[in-house]
């Protein structure tokens, strides 16, 4: 009944599943051969193969799902280009989450923590949609740009 997901690196769709108990779960749903979410939800298989936010793979019984919302990821590349072009909008302090006047050590610690969180190696072994990988790469570039701006 449970097929190995390692052999087929199929397409995925970002969605928010609302379960019968009211809990909302943001996930990446593995799509079937057609690549359409609606057909994956309506096929004869009992379980959905999903990856939750923490990277753990789950198999969710379709009967436990009340509602599915398609989730549109932020257009990270487009936003990154806009912010890089308009320095007045780009607030390096807000990106790193430090107060104005923070010491170099505080800035570096904030940068190191965020850079580690969004580093591409952290997501290398996960079967994530390309949009999520692009978002992480754009965030990494944004974090690095903020650090460069504050450390110079």
Could you explain the architecture of this structure?
The chain has 152 residues and is of the alpha+beta class. It is built from six helices and five strands; from the N terminus they run ββαβββααααα. The chain is 41% helix and 21% strand. The protein has a five-stranded antiparallel beta sheet. The chain is elongated and about 60 Å long. The protein starts with 11 loop residues before the first strand and ends with a helix.
The gist of it:
The longest helix is centred in the last third of the chain and has 22 residues. This protein is of the alpha+beta class and 152 residues long.
The helix-strand sequence is EEHEEEHHHHH
Mean pLDDT: 81
What's the shape? elongated
Cα-atom radius of gyration: 19 Å
Q: Say how many strands there are.
A: 5
Placed side by side, the strands forming the largest sheet appear as 4-3-2-1-5
Q: How far from one another are the termini?
A: 57 Å
- Main sheet record: 5 strands, antiparallel
The structure class reads: alpha+beta
Could you name the ranges where pLDDT drops below 50 across 5 or more consecutive residues? 1-9
Beta-strand content: 15-25%
Count of helical regions: 6
The level of helicity is 40-55%
């Amino acid at each position: 009944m449970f097929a190995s997901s390692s052999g087929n690196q199929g397409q995925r769709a970002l969605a928010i599943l609302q379960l019968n108990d009211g809990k909302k779960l943001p996930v990446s749903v593995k799509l079937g051969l057609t690549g359409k979410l609606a057909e994956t939800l309506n096929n004869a298989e009992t379980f959905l193969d999903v990856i939750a936010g923490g990277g753990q793979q789950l198999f969710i019984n379709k009967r436990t799902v009340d509602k599915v919302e398609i989730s549109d990821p932020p257009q990270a590349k487009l936003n990154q280009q806009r912010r890089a072009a308009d320095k007045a909008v780009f607030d390096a302090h807000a990106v790193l989450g430090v107060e104005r006047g923070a010491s170099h050590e505080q800035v570096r610690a904030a940068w190191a923590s965020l850079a580690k969180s969004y580093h591409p190696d952290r997501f290398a072994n996960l079967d994530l949609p390309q949009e999520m990988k692009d978002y992480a790469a754009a965030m990494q570039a944004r974090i690095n740009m903020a650090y460069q701006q504050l450390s110079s």
